[in-house]
Amino acid sequence: MFLKTFGWSFAVTAVALAIALVYGGPQALILCLILGILEVSLSFDNAVVNARILERMNPFWQKMFLSVGIVIAVFGMRVLFPLLIVGVTAKLNPVEAVNLALQKGDPHTPGTYGYLLHEAHPQIAAFGGLFLLMLFLDFILEDGDIKWIKALEVPLARIGKLDGASMAAGLIALAVAGFLAGEKQGIVLLSGLLGVITYVLVNGLGNLFDVDGDGDVDFDDASAATRSGPSSAAKLAGKAAFMLFLYLEVIDASFSFDGVIGAFAITSDPIIIALGLGFIGAMFVRSLTVYLVRQGTLDEFEYLDHGAHWAIGALAVILLVTISVPVNEVVTGLIGVVFIGAAFAGSVVRNRNKTSLSPEAESPEPVLTITK
Question: Most buried of 21, 121, 257, 272, CB within 10 angstroms?
Fold first, then answer.
């Protein structure tokens, strides 16, 4: 099962490292490997959220995510997105943007590719931070049956009973980030507002599709998939699954913002970044997502959803903080691992307690037999 799921990822990793070695020698190979590890460490929470959504889709749409989705993740977000940002920021056409990227250059030198992308960080962080924050708030403010960090989740669920609580909290966070952004205040507020609008639109697209004669499943709230029940529930198909696919791609893209920006702290070479983040990191995240779905891990370890969403909330806050204050990439990379690890450990303890308290676990009473 493990090799079947991760086999392609190991194969792609070997090819990517070989290309890096030919392209730039041992140093490029090491940088490529570091970027791959960085992306995987940043994306544990991404894989958990992806898996919870993916298990709601039928096999066709699962394959679409793992095929078309990987193309979008690798080439769209790890290659084309930085080029687009630099092109718009520096008012360059696509050819000029590519040429500038291939020139590499020191990210601290004005006019270089890495420098321009770094200059665009406030608007990227505001958009991605607010999108992820809304995702976290909608999950954590709902009064679900399962609570992990009860001291926080119980009072937050009470707050969530207020209409528009998540929207109010998100806009307050945006106002604070804008206030601290200094001269970038205008672009930060606009980008953050676009992040909120994008979340609301994508999250509500499912409302356009109702049950009809073609057997489509009504899906009124795309984000409910992250809080859905067991994977044995009805699988989404047709237009509902397509909306969920779009929602999943936007979430997946939002998770990649921190990795793309953080990569330029390690190297400004777009080829190495594409190999490390895209071909190695994104492939392993996809494989981890599939593994979680096929193993039913999220249903077996019930706190993983909560751990992933707390990691999302922490990542959202970190993105907003980095608009005005630098945050070490190690902190960003470890925060998801810490939350997922703690949630996994808590789930193990919960399962043991449930097993020890179940009637089946009790020792049967001795049966007195009478023989003549």
Answer: 272
